[in-house]
Design a protein that fits this description.
heterodimer, A: 446 residues, alpha+beta, six-stranded mixed sheet, B: 472 residues, PmbA/TldD fold, 11 helices, 23 strands, globular
């Protein structure tokens, strides 16, 4: 859709809403997606999608109405405004229902790589096939490539509201992934790797294929160990999985509804002193890098936990209004079909200075955790977790044999307090980043 | 809906670089949802989505493109993109001129059947009924939703279908508490064909039932553990059969080698008298339709007859692979997804026994009246289900309600261990998830006895083939 038309539709919708003497917000997105899955050097499935949609939030005397449409004709947009307005007759009034007041100045960010769109599909197919080849060439024991592929996403967002806010930006990125299995002497183990990048030239099929292959091969002939309480090191990827849970615990919606362990703990020490966590949509390495949130509020680097002390929750305009503070720029929508909720952007656990070897140094017997399974079963309200894990045994400061079939369990609050080292090897996985971390001890059942 | 000439042009564009089959699926969908919680309307949401999905199949491989741009230019661009998956030496075989024209039109808009004000009146009345039922009721959550969908399907074999569908759904969740003892009761109902559903089911009655169940469970002792006979009441619906057996009869899973029913056609897979049927033609049921999402007329398929495996459920692509006809089970969540074999209304057919008699002839066991969520291993049919409402059976008599029962077992084994089949039939509704797509389904079963199941048991470890079942 061309830019002028987007603006025209948004202005038309805004004016229709203003005619109702209400506060109005228009959220318009255009999404383009391409996904290619390859199998043995040729395309298995190719999927391409373009989606345009408009969400209208209307607030009349504190009552909220919301409607969306993918049909951007004048009659369809007017119907959506009518529907949204009609709802405000029935929804209860809440004076914290507010829109952010503009205009804002937004940071200029490098978010768009022209080469992603202009590169022919053939070259993208080839990239995915090269990841497949690289994996097979890494080790002869790679027996099955379950799935390998290339994905790209382009998104344009336009937000306007009756309080003078105007925000518009576009972003794109590409990615490679591979899922595979290694087999040896009757044992089969899986491995996967993924790389997302804003810059097409940085996509590295060789590295992706090799990483997945090495993971799978490294797990061959892994064995279980007996139950124990051991010091451990979590790989950056494993820690980013735990950051997903922390993200839900620092969400002000959860806090205000009494569904977070971190409620009432602002200013208190909730983690070890070596842990600093920020929410930072300005980090270009993360896929959530964007100059404004899903209500058009400008983003910044927001400290969440500073040297172990809980500094702030994540807020949108509504949750912030309830506390009488400013939004932290964390309004988040699943799509134009939904109202803004609260969500993290790039959640970054800041790195320390130690190498992985230095973290392992002095561990007489411990576990290097490379994978956790079943994280969605973790209860974010109680913080209790009990998840499957695999990794490599650490003995006298060195990695020895692969381990699987074990469960690690505890409470996330204890886990945060138990961190006693943060590595220097910080890495981004999508919109999460962490370095390797060392825990004083963790409960392992074999 | 779009003109035939444009559709033919789009299909030709899609086949330009070769391809065995091209199809366009156009959808115009309006949805409306109300979420009521804590004595107030938490949110109302309404939406309109229009889009087209174009797919090209060449030598069993699929390329799929979808767009919201329904202009001729937009569709031709999408068609060209879908067609380019084909190789350079392909031969262009033009699509056949569209000829068959099936038309099904709904008479009345959903919003005219039941206005927003009417919906809210039903909801508030139901909320009051549940809260007045008992002092123990602490929270009531009610949802009401409807969807109206107009679709047009055209393909390169010259078929053209136009259809209008609507479906409605309502749920009530009641929470009762005494001190730290918190129990819930859940009721849901849904159907196709609009709000005439309210003539059959009252939201107020659903609220009372949910409240009654939540309160009854407060006093219930914990369920017994161990292996014992289980009588599944028809009111439990067929969720267990759908999840633990039905998926294994979907042709794509069979062809990928992920089903225990692979290569079992003509063999005995269930006890004598057990019939498993998938029937998309039952009037008004939540999983019913007139045409599937590939434009094939809805069917009643007998999957297992008197214990013998007769047929799998097919869509066009899997049917072509097996050299059979589609059974009309090609379904998709929306224009954004390619169709895959899916169930519609799946059931174990009724038998001849009096349901009361089944209970009377059970000396000791568990009577399950309502199922909750669970987990299923889709490759082997192992399952773990929570039970919402259950009673102990002693000497053929229904005794006290028990709470917290967990059923674990194996779907294919359950089919073999059914030894009494009642003459009644009860339905449950749900949204079935597969390959990231959710479609509305219903399932049903008579009151029946399973000779032995494990009560108690643990949740399974996670894995690629473990599916989570949420029926709320």
């Amino acid at each position: 859709m061309n830019q002028d038309y987007m603006e025209k539709v948004a202005v038309m919708a805004l004016e229709a809403g203003l005619g109702k003497k209400a506060d109005v917000e228009i959220y318009l997105t255009v999404n383009r997606q391409l996904s290619i899955e390859v199998e043995k050097g040729s395309v298995d499935t190719l999927k391409e999608a373009e989606e345009t949609g408009l969400g209208i939030r209307l607030i009349k005397d504190g009552s909220l109405g919301f409607a969306y449409t993918t049909d951007l004709s004048m009659s369809a947009v007017n119907k959506a405004v009518e529907d949204a307005f009609h709802m405000t007759v029935y929804t209860s009034s809440d004076h914290y229902n507010q829109l952010p007041s503009g205009p804002y100045e937004y940071q200029n960010m490098q978010l768009y790589d022209e080469t992603i769109g202009s590169t022919p599909v053939g070259s993208k197919i080839e990239l995915a096939c090269r990841a497949e080849t690289a994996a097979r060439e890494t080790d002869v024991r790679i027996s099955i490539i379950e799935r390998a592929g290339y994905e790209e996403v382009e998104n344009t967002t336009l937000i306007m509201n009756s309080r003078g806010l105007y925000a518009r930006e576009r972003v794109n990125f590409g990615g490679l992934y591979i899922y595979l299995a290694a087999e040896d002497n009757g044992d089969a183990q899986t491995g996967f790797a993924v790389q997302m990048s804003k810059w097409f030239k940085d996509l590295n099929p060789q590295k992706v294929g090799q990483e997945a292959a090495e993971k799978a091969v490294g797990r061959l002939h892994a064995r279980s160990i007996s139950s124990a309480v051991l010091p451990c090191i979590m790989e950056p990827y494993v820690m980013t999985r735990f950051l997903n849970i922390i993200s839900r615990m620092v969400n002000a919606e959860a806090v205000q509804k009494g569904k977070s362990l971190l409620a009432g703990k602002l200013g208190q020490k909730v983690a070890a002193g070596c842990m600093t966590l920020v929410d930072d949509a300005t980090r270009t390495e993360g896929t959530a890098c964007f100059p404004f949130d899903d209500e058009g509020v400008p983003v910044h680097c927001q400290p969440i936990i500073s040297e172990g002390v809980l500094n702030s929750y994540l807020h949108n305009t509504y949750t912030a209004a309830r506390e009488g503070i400013n939004s932290t720029g964390n309004a988040s929508r699943a799509s134009f079909r939904s109202l803004p909720a609260v969500g993290s952007s790039n959640l970054v656990l800041l790195p320390g200075e130690k190498s992985t070897a230095a973290l392992m140094d002095g561990i007489n017997k411990g576990l290097y955790i490379t994978e956790v399974m079943g994280m969605h079963t973790v209860n974010p309200i109680s913080g209790d977790y009990s998840v499957g894990a695999s990794g490599i045994m650490i003995e006298k400061g060195c990695l020895t044999f692969p381990v699987r079939g074990i469960t690690i369990a505890g409470n996330i609050m204890d886990l945060l307090q138990s961190i006693d080292g943060v590595g220097s090897d910080m890495r981004f996985y999508g919109s999460r980043a962490s370095a390797s971390i060392r825990l004083k001890s963790i409960n392992i059942s074999g | 809906m779009l003109d035939k000439n444009i559709l033919n042009k789009v299909l030709d564009e899609a086949l330009k670089k070769g391809g065995d089959f091209a199809e366009i699926y156009i959808e115009d969908k309006s949805t409306s949802n109300i979420f009521y919680d804590d004595n107030k309307i938490e949110s109302i949401n309404s939406g309109r989505e229009k889009g087209a999905g174009i797919r090209v199949i060449k030598q069993g491989k699929t390329s799929y493109v979808h767009t919201n741009d329904l202009t001729a230019k937009g569709l031709l661009k999408a068609a060209a993109a879908a067609g380019r998956g084909a190789g350079p030496h392909a031969i262009f075989r033009p699509s056949i001129a569209l000829h068959r024209n099936e038309l099904n039109l709904e008479e009345e808009l959903l919003s005219e059947q039941l206005s927003l004000a009417d919906k809210i009146q039903h909801i508030t009345a139901a909320n009051e009924a549940a809260r007045n039922y008992s002092r123990e009721i602490r929270q009531v959550t009610i949802t009401l939703g409807d969807v109206a969908q107009a679709i047009q399907i055209a393909n390169s074999d010259g078929e053209l279908i136009e259809d209008e569908r609507s479906r409605v759904r309502m749920t009530v969740n009641a929470v009762a508490a005494q001190g730290n003892n918190v129990q819930t009761g859940f009721e849901s109902a849904g159907g196709i064909g609009g709000w005439k559903l309210l003539q059959e089911v009252s939201l107020e009655d659903m609220a009372l039932k949910a409240a009654d169940l939540a309160v009854a469970m407060l006093a219930a002792p914990a369920a017994p553990a161990g292996r014992m006979p289980v009588v599944m009441s028809s009111s439990a619906g067929g969720t267990l059969i759908h999840e633990a057996c039905g998926h294994g009869l979907e042709a794509d899973l069979v062809q990928k080698g992920l089903s225990v029913y692979k290569d079992k056609q003509g063999q005995i897979v269930a006890a004598p008298g057990v019939n498993v049927i998938d029937d998309a033609t039952i009037d008004g049921k939540y999983g019913s339709y007139k045409f599937d999402d590939e434009g094939i007329k809805a069917q009643r398929s007998i999957l297992i007859e008197n214990g013998v495996l007769c047929s799998y459920m097919y869509d066009r692509l899997t049917a072509r692979k097996d050299g059979v006809k589609s059974t009309g089970n090609g379904r998709r969540e929306s224009y954004q997804y390619k169709p895959v074999p899916r169930m519609s209304n799946t059931m174990i057919g009724p038998g001849h026994e009096d349901p009361e008699h089944i209970i009377k002839s059970t000396p000791h066991g568990l009577l399950v009246k309502k199922m909750g969520g669970g987990q299923v291993n889709t490759t082997n049919g192992d399952f773990v289900f929570e039970v919402q409402e259950a009673y102990v059976i002693e000497a053929g008599q229904i005794k006290s309600p028990v709470k917290g029962a967990i059923l674990s077992g194996n779907g294919p084994e359950v089919l073999k261990n059914i030894d009494m089949i009642g003459r009644d039939l009860g339905f449950a509704i749900g949204t079935c998830g597969k390959d990231g797509q959710g479609v509305p389904v219903a399932d049903a079963q008579p009151t029946m006895r399973i000779t032995e199941l494990t009560i108690g048991g643990r949740k399974m470890a996670d894995g690629p083939h473990i599916k989570k079942i949420r029926r709320q």
